[in-house]
Amino acid sequence: MKDFVDLYKSIDETTSTNAKVAALVDYFASDVSEQDKLWTIGLFTHRKPPRAVNTTLLRTWTAEQSALPTWLFEDTYHLVGDLAETIALVLPRKNRDLSADLSLSGLIDQLKYIKTLDDESKKEKVLDLWSQMDNDERFLFNKLITGGFRLGVSQKLLTKALSIHLKEDESRIAHKLMGEWTPETTTWSKLFEESMGEADISRPYPFFLAYAVEGAPEDIGPAEEWVAEFKWDGIRGQLIKRRGKVFLWSRGEELVTDKYPEFDAVAGVQADDFVLDGEILAFKDGMPLSFNDLQTRIGRKSPGGKLLREKPVVFMAYDLLEYEGADVRSRTYGERRELLAMLLEDMAIEDLIIPSGYYTLPDWEYAKNLREQASDQKAEGLMLKQLSSQYLTGRKKGGWWKWKIDPLTVDAVMIYAQRGHGRRASLYTDFTFAVKGDGGVLLPFTKAYSGLTDVEFREVTTYVRNHTIEKFGPVVSVVPQLVFEIAFEGIAASGRHKSGVALRFPRIKRWRKDKTVEEINHIDDLKALL
Is residue 152 in some structural domain? Predict the structure, then answer.
């Protein structure tokens, strides 16, 4: 565990990418057990052990052990902004005569055991482990026991470090890290040294992600080198068929095959050993439905017949990553689209897998006119793809760009505020906004926490502290005076919200210091956008 704590601190205490990669390389080259290394990779790729103890019990036990009144512990937590760190700080010091002396994998085995115990036995075991740990060990143990472990290491950095350590190409390492494996279901050898076996036939490829166009599209090169596709508003996914079996993955590396039983039909097509990249869309009568319609299916593990009829889905395919068992990502986009067209023609299931159309660009003016049509197509904008581009790993600049339509906006007033977490624990960064309702009342309609600079967050925090009306735990109501422009990607009717609407991707566009609360929008302005 000490090695893992040292690694965590080395990464957490620097903003240097090179220093983080070096720390990871040193760790993988050390004599730490392969099982510990596997769990380190698992934790950094969001394969966390399940929560062993609920946070209410941990708070109660900590207050008892530290002899703090519950209210004082809760206030301390809200100021620190991180439960695991708060517990580690307020607990009595480690018993010098004891030492947990556990490996990372050994500690995770303890967590699995703790999860099986009754509450009193859990308490006894957790207190015993706390007494043997120093503050740094307790902090990480608390992160693991609450299921809240995360660190500022992107999968790209982890992949780079493993590539250096294993002396293997980064794209191959990234591919091996994809899929359903866990440190409990694989070994170091199976993950990195063996070729894909029967158990791994579902493994997807790392997704290629695009940056947003920042200036004029002309800046990326001559238009004739590019094609445009509509940017569909669904769930990015990979549809895989290998050895007669079908698998559907979301971009978040969740296997969602069971949620969309429509695609079971793909098992019956003659073509085999292929991987499609595309978008899962709610789709009916020849047109995409809204993302809100798709959301009714996202949380259902096994949708019923009524939902399948009312909210059918299709796979809008726009790229081909594997063809007849061969990885074709290194071929050009133009070549991959030709192969995709051949494959879909052979499959002949047009009502289930639809090729996303693409448009050659005689000039950028044509692309701009096409972008203006995106809303009519129920799309978010355009994807610009270079005909000569390969399918890369992760977010890269150059071959693909996303050019979204301008967001919808509304002016609203802040009525509630809540402190942030981590480095922003001392600032109010999470806000609730309201528009005018009937009779002049303020009607809350959305929350947002991004879009301001650090200087603006500090300025808003000062206002909140000086204009608080009431406190509700970590949330405070404030004098409704600060007006902000709220941007959002879409809007839908919602029976779950008092306002009657739900926004898609709301965020603060700018602080409207030039406007008063009398000038904010009315709820009818939002409903007119439905």
Answer: no
